[in-house]
Design goal:
The chain is an alpha+beta fold and 462 residues long. It folds into 2 domains: 182 residues, START domain (Alpha-D-Glucose-1,6-Bisphosphate, Chain A, domain 4), CATH 3.30.530.20; 242 residues, Alpha-D-Glucose-1,6-Bisphosphate, Chain A, domain 4, CATH 3.30.530.20. 27% of the residues lie in helices and 35% in strands. The chain contains 10 helices and 21 strands. The chain has a 10-stranded antiparallel sheet with strand order 9-13-14-15-16-17-21-12-11-10, sandwiched between helices. A hairpin with a 7-residue loop joins strand 13 and strand 14. The longest helix has 38 residues. It is globular, with a radius of gyration of 23 Å. This is START domain-containing protein. InterPro entries: HD-Zip_IV, HD-Zip_IV_C, START_lipid-bd_dom. Keywords: DNA-binding, Homeobox, Nucleus, Transcription, Transcription regulation. GO terms for molecular function: DNA binding; lipid binding.
């Protein structure tokens, strides 16, 4: 779709080419979409689970009539939500143009490489070259747009942990289908944010308070995504003797607003589960079922006091939950902010404890950036496993087992002193908590599966 001559002399067997294309209809008009692509901050907000960092380095051409003809030098760091997958950093040129094709008006957003323009710009390894990529946007009735997306890149061949190897090499991690799936979901969320006629359940006093709570939840999601990936040069350490060598830990010294100040310990693991992605998502997003997992609930029940639906799928929502513990009183109430979201490429369930004063501050319209959030959560992706058992795929002769990859991210405030040193007991404790979490989730899914099978068998007997 976007032709660009490749310098074949610079290519080698150490580079792998990725190319994909997809198309979909999203609930956002073309002008709003274009504005999000040319504004680096809005672009990051639109793709929190893909774009870790982005900035406009230089505006080369302002364009005419707004963004038409705009040319920018961009920088981006793309991530997967796991420290096991290296991020991809690149400088590239982004061009935006409105054009007529067969009596229809399209917007074209095209990213192309810097070859021959800025040879002095260097990024970290593995080397990532963003070849001609982007999207065509066609306005449709009622504020919708048809988006055709093309991803084309060359990536230096580097070892990737085997649990994510197929996911990355198949293009599911950074391909056009994932970009579009996330865009569809985020456009629904933005439409919900701007709507005024959506009934909500609970204690939210006004449409403006609803917007503010949604913005706070968006920051929670973005914080979680950034904190569990390998972006910004975060150094992760493997935990010895972890199952399949998938547990990684890191520490961060935090002194700015928005997160608890001190030394934060973060642990992340990824596990393949022989259950469909939607089944794992449904278990983890339901606070009543999750409360049955002792390691995640500490034996405390959760009661939903506010609910914001922000998508067509019932799992796309924000909940404000009251933690029912004996220490709660009229003077002190523990709350939990939770957002769950799902699309065909994967799902997120993220939550963080907040106090009542912080929630009231956010809903009153005050700046919520100072509210400390330390989110925990889950990232679930569909992932079929090729093996000797399971259902046979007649197209290629392989045996396929339907399953999913579950990434669990936990964070704790290890010390209120940023300069403190982490001790081995804290590492052992969070690693044990992580392993127990995965075990209890797997057991709960297994029990549900057995229960469903038994019900099915009983139904057949009848």
């Amino acid at each position: 779709m976007f032709h660009w001559p490749l310098n074949l002399k610079q290519r080698s067997s150490e580079f792998r080419t990725e190319a994909s294309r997809d198309s979909s209809v999203v609930i956002m008009n073309s002008i709003t979409l274009v504005d999000a692509f040319v504004d680096a901050h809005k672009w990051m907000e639109l793709f929190p689970s893909i774009v870790a960092r982005a900035k406009c380095v230089q505006v080369i051409s302002q364009g005419v009539s707004g963004t038409n003809g705009c040319l920018q030098l961009m920088y981006a760091e793309l991530h997967m939500l796991s420290p096991l997958v290296p991020t991809r950093e690149a400088y590239f040129l982004r061009y935006c143009q409105q054009q007529n094709v067969e009596d229809e008006t399209y917007w074209a957003i095209v990213d192309f490489p810097l070859d021959g323009f800025h040879n002095s710009l260097q990024t970290s390894f593995p080397l990532y070259k963003r070849r001609p990529s982007g999207c065509l946007i066609l306005d449709m009735p009622n504020g919708y747009s048809r988006v055709t997306w093309v991803e084309h890149a060359e990536i230096e061949e580097k070892p990737i942990h085997q649990i994510f190897s197929h996911f990355v090499h198949s293009g599911m991690a950074f391909g056009a289908n994932r970009w579009l799936a996330v865009l569809e979901r985020q456009c629904e969320r933005v439409a919900s944010l701007m709507a005024t006629n959506i009934p909500d359940i609970g204690v939210i006093p006004s449409p403006e308070a609803r917007k503010n709570l949604m913005r706070l939840s968006q920051r929670m999601i973005r914080t979680f995504c950034v904190n569990i990936s390998s972006c910004s040069g975060q150094v992760w350490t493997a935990v010895p003797d972890s199952t399949d060598d998938t547990v990684r830990i890191t520490t961060r010294k935090v002194s700015e607003a928005g997160q608890p100040n001190g030394l934060i310990l973060c642990a992340v693991s990824t596990t393949w589960l022989p259950y469909p992605h939607h089944q794992v998502f449904d278990l983890l997003r339901d606070e009543r079922r999750r409360a049955q997992l002792e390691v995640l609930s500490n034996g405390n029940a959760l009661h939903e006091v506010a609910h914001i639906a922000n998508g067509s799928h019932p799992g796309n929502c924000i909940s404000l939950l009251r933690i029912n513990v004996s220490s709660n009183s009229s003077q002190h109430v523990d709350l939990m902010l939770q957002e769950s979201c799902t699309n065909k490429s994967g799902s997120l369930v993220v939550y963080s404890t907040v106090d009542v004063d912080s929630v009231q501050l956010a809903m009153s319209g005050e700046d919520p950036s100072c509210i400390p959030l330390l989110p925990l959560g889950f990232f679930i992706t569909p992932m079929e496993l090729v093996n000797d058992g399971g259902c046979k795929d007649e197209a290629n002769g392989h045996n396929i087992t339907t399953g999913s990859l579950l990434t669990v991210g936990l964070q704790v405030l290890a010390s209120t002193i940023p300069s403190a040193k982490i001790n081995l007991s804290s590492i052992a404790a969070i690693n044990n908590h992580l392993c127990t979490t995965v075990q209890q989730i797997s057991s709960a899914l297994s029990s549900n599966c057995i229960g469903s099978c038994n019900e099915g068998d009983n139904g057949k007997e009848k």
